[in-house]
Design a protein that fits this description.
The chain is an alpha/beta fold. It has a single domain, classed as 3-Layer(aba) Sandwich (Oxidized Rhodanese, domain 1), CATH 3.40.250.10. The chain contains five helices and four strands. The two termini are about 15 Å apart. About 30% of the residues are buried.
């Protein structure tokens, strides 16, 4: 499912790692919104309008973030680690 969303360019990737982690490597075109900022940036996130795929370092924060957004009626999916998402982008 996630791979299809990425391949068809129908989804936007949100990386929920810290800004420093994001600067160390990320998926091209992804947006960095750290997990601790998600609840404060819901309006901004809603404006993205696409299905969202969340990623992080290991998959823990992306799962938590997806839960937060889903509770706020935002369509999103837990993509796991950014490396896993990157492999879907490049396949």
């Amino acid at each position: 499912m996630i791979q299809n969303l990425i391949k068809n360019e129908n989804a936007k990737i949100i990386d929920v790692r810290t800004a420093n982690e994001f600067l160390g490597g990320n998926v091209e075109g992804s947006v960095n919104i750290p997990l601790n900022e998600l609840e404060y940036r819901l309006n901004e996130i809603r404006e993205i309008g696409k299905p969202l795929i969340l990623c992080c370092a290991s998959g823990i924060r992306s799962k938590i973030g997806a839960g937060i957004l889903q509770q706020n009626n935002i369509e999103c999916y837990d993509g796991g680690s950014w490396i896993e998402v990157l492999s879907c982008v490049n396949c």
